[in-house]
Design brief:
By secondary structure, the chain is mainly alpha-helical. It has a domain at 18-134 and 162-218. Helix content is 60%, strand content 3%. It has a two-stranded antiparallel sheet with strand order 1-2. The longest helix has 34 residues, at 53-86. 26% of the residues are buried. The mean pLDDT is 90.
Length: 252
């Protein structure tokens, strides 16, 4: 894998108009958080113990936890654009001619999505990710079949216990709340599709904005601006990275 270290001179950053600097730094920070959560969710999803039913349930719970957090971050990202981009009318200059057609189209995709009354990401964030709807949780246990794993997992080390039954109820409430034709599997697929699509649109938009900023405010003028190319050896393929739930706290 090849990467480039790109100098961002402090004096140039401070010379930017404040509204543009705040917008650029904000979307970069948010993009970093979204990227990390995406990687963790993928790593959790590919874990699971080679068919072990208990480990599959545990990693599904872990993955849905990360998905809820990611949905919350995506809504917060959109609301940040409302305050730092739209309110300051940056779209008049940071448009398709400057940030590129792909980034501008991605912004339109997000605007259309978050403008919908049935926006799943907003529902997840408001009712399950950052807030907790006690009425939905209270109503869910009776709707879950007896054949589910009604259990908790207790470990002899801190941080390895899982109150599985609690997330069984909470996740069932989430999937029923977002039910697609009362099909829980379809609901989960719809959640993952929506989050993946919006996360991709966000990434494309941020990439276009930073490319515009680099060309406009951080051009290469002398040796202080030269990019440093590096090779990163041994980086695994994303499908090979796993996020295990159980961890030993001390080496044996």
């Amino acid at each position: 894998m090849k990467i480039h270290q790109v100098p961002i001179r402090k004096e140039r950053l401070l010379a930017m108009p404040e509204v543009e600097r705040t917008f650029l730094l904000g979307i970069g920070h948010i993009a970093n958080e979204i990227m990390v959560l995406q990687k963790l969710a993928v790593a959790s999803a590919v874990s699971g113990g080679d068919g072990d039913a208990l480990l599959l349930r545990i990693h599904a719970t872990q993955t849905l936890t990360l998905v809820r957090l990611l949905a919350g971050k995506l809504l917060e990202a959109w609301e940040f654009l409302g305050r730092a981009f739209y309110a300051n009318r940056l779209g008049q200059t940071w448009d398709a001619d400057t940030i590129g057609a792909e980034a501008a189209d991605s912004l339109s995709v997000m605007a259309k999505y978050f403008g919908r009354a049935d926006c799943l990401v907003r529902t997840i964030r408001n009712e399950f990710g950052f807030h907790y709807d006690k009425d939905q949780i209270a109503a869910s246990p009776e709707l879950i079949g007896d054949d589910e794993a009604w259990e908790i997992i207790l470990a002899d080390t801190s941080g390895n216990s899982l109150y599985y039954v609690a997330d069984l109820v909470a996740n069932h409430a989430l999937l029923k709340r977002l039910a697609v034709a009362d099909d829980v599997s379809a609901s989960l697929e719809k959640i993952l599709d929506d989050i993946g699509n919006i996360a991709g649109a966000w990434s494309a938009f941020v990439g276009g904005c930073w490319a515009h900023a680099m060309e406009t405010y951080f051009p290469i003028e002398d040796e202080r601006d030269v990019w440093t190319r590096r090779d990163v050896e041994g980086a695994p393929h994303i499908s090979e990275v796993q996020l295990e739930f159980f961890h030993e706290l001390s080496k044996k």
